[in-house]
Amino acid sequence: MNLLVSIITPSYNSSKYIEETIRSVVSQTYKNWEMIIVDDMSPDNANIIIDNFLKNDSRIQLIKLEKNVGVAEARNIAIEQAKGRYIAFLDSDDIWLPQKLEKQINFMQEHDLSLTYSSYYTINENSTRLNTRKVKELISYRDMLKSNHIGNLTGIYDCDKLGKVYMDSRGHEDYILWLKVFKEIKQTRGIVEPLAEYRILANSLSSNKLKVLKWQWHIYRKVEKLNIFQSSYYFLFYIYYALKKRS
User: Fold this and answer.
1) In 3-state terms, what secondary structure has residue 24?
2) How is domain 5-201 classified at the CATH fold level?
3) Three-state secondary structure call for residue 60
4) Which single residue of 97, 116, 212, 229 has CA 20 to 30 Å from 6?
5) What pLDDT does 52 receive?
6) pLDDT confidence of 247, banded at 50, 70, 90?
């Protein structure tokens, strides 16, 4: 069935890449989607670029916030407005390959899944491919504690099965969302074929390694409520997978 997909895209200082991002959505072979872009009081001219698309495609919406709320809350505002059965995420500097939605929604329906994901390519600031981040075909909650195996630009969840799941306003907000879902579903399957391109920026938050490690430890201890031994066990795996991604 060709059910509606709601695509969640926060926008802040996105003028350099937002056109490429939106074009990757417009080019999807799966046509029943809405793209909800949330302008988080961006100081650049991204809205001028977005407005050009709004004139030509009614499936694209722009929500302009009156104060800066951060990426997690911007996504939550879009989720609240979403009308689709499926929620998908695409940040304003990332790209989907043309058959991404078609292949993933068909896969979800064929296997009766609440959540799916896929492999993806990494690209640099000039859109040159760097490497491939290949996912495991089957992952569980314990796998997710060892590493975030779901690139946010590839994750899609089913609102009919899970309800609307929102993000927490703290570091690794997408990872925390997936952990919430896995507590309900225990395990799920993904597509090993790369279906998206994740842009690595020199000034991205994830480039601050110490901060990332602190966030991860906080998730184990304060969010997932693991004891010190469990936290240490999974933290070692997290470091291993982080090093593996960068090798």
Assistant:
1) helix
2) Spore Coat Polysaccharide Biosynthesis Protein SpsA; Chain A (3.90.550)
3) strand
4) 212
5) 95
6) low
First to last CA, the chain: 40
25's tokens: 């959505």
- Annotated domain spans of the chain: 5-201, 208-247
**Angle made by CA atoms 51, 56, 61, in degrees to the nearest 5:** 50
User: Which amino acid is it at 87?
Assistant: I
pTM assigned to the model = 0.94
Residue carrying structure tokens 């504690």:
145
In which residue are the tokens 């184990």 written? 220
Give tens-digit pLDDT for 140-187: 999 999 999 999 999 999 999 999 999 998 778 999 999 999 999 999
